[in-house]
Amino acid sequence: MLDPISLLTDAFTSFLFGKVETTRLPVRTSTGQAQAVYLPTAAPGLGDSGVIIGREVYSGKGYIYDPFQLYGQQLPAPHWLVLGESGNGKSALEKTYVLRQLRFRDRQVVVLDAQGEDGVGEWNLIAQQLGITPIRLDPMAALEGGIKLNPLDPAITATGQLALLRTIIEVALGHGLDERSGFALKVAHSHAVESITTRQPILTDIVERLRHPAEESADSMNVDIEDVRAWGLDVALVLDRLVDGDLRGMFDGPTTAGIDLDAPLIVFDLSHIDRNSIAMPILMAIVGVWLEHTWIRPDRVKRIFLVEEAWHIINSPFVAQLFQRLLKFGRRLGLSFVAVVHHLSDVVDGAAAREAAAILKMASTRTIYAQKADEARATGRVLGLPRWAVEIIPTLTPGIAVWDVNGNVQVVKHLITENERPLVYTDRAMTETSAELVGRVEPTEAELALEKQLADDAVA
């Protein structure tokens, strides 16, 4: 109840200015009902410049990501780790991401395609669509004039060649080279490179020098020539596998001429190599170092290096060390490394835990698809994910993933356009039986809008 003076004041004010306020009775309510008063809010996105991935699940906003746009502002490094069980959409994400990046003229992509079906790699359809022939590394094809990559290619520096030879041998042996074996390899490599000037030195030359070391190499160390030969015996036996063993043909000759390193997409088809054999990490090491010295150049082109089955790299201490250097070096020249791994526990609990941790630290972007609860908790501990994200990972459905971009964590649904659908299936039988069914399903408004925006945003 107002006092008499307040009533008199209100009456006088109303007489002069009219009634300016409606008196309302107070309303009692609960916090559950009152929260409807507040407008919905969502965490800020990553900006509107880059590649469209899909939309945020909780806010419905479009989700746009590009490591080259974000680097130096929101990202300390442009490298990206993709995790998750098979069948949840990792492959579709990688393929659509590459296709959308290639709409920009200053982009180049290399893919190490370690999975295959029907005798070809799973990136074969996309390569065909773009008019590109994959570089198929196959021991049997190499013997009949197929692709060869020379670890002693003159495009690779002498230091790089020696580091690559050591890595090949250490991966095959499963341990580091001792000083004596390392010395035998060093003098054999030095002698082969300096004495052969009319052609590319090849691995056969190194094996020959190891079996028959030069006298001066023994004299320089004041040891017997037979000692030097004995020191290099294990090294020669390992390299002989690449020359005359089950891996022969791919690396024991000059690099095949005509490999187009200026193509927008370069696919190395490794699907004919046993993924569980020691050949795979050796192969990835050779390809990685060869690309480091021949493909990455200071020409302001933004490059993406995508590796399927990347645990072959991260889980080997010797291969991981080579790629650590590549990643550090690549940041100055516009390289984004994309590693695709099924289980993080396979990496952090392996022989290369220290090297794996260093590479994971460089990956400022992490995309995690559905995992079992135990695996999700282990992943969360290693990557430092918030608790709510760890709890939601086991419940994710295919096509939805947790994205952690340097601490900006969102749940994102990947959207695929109708034009992309036929290219992203990894199971050929699935494609043949279900492509027509998929074609008969009406696309959603979000997918239609995405397809239109992708078409409109193509950079000339």
From TrEMBL:
Classification via InterPro entries: P-loop_NTPase, T4SS_component
UniProt xrefs under Gene3D superfamilies: 1.10.8.730, P-loop containing nucleotide triphosphate hydrolases (3.40.50.300)
Pfam families recorded: AAA_10 (PF12846)
Highest taxon above the source species: Bacteria
Keyword Oxidoreductase part of the UniProt annotation: no
Keywords assigned by UniProt, alphabetized: ATP-binding, Nucleotide-binding
A molecular function GO annotation: ATP binding
Protein name as catalogued: ATP-binding protein
Organism name: Streptantibioticus silvisoli
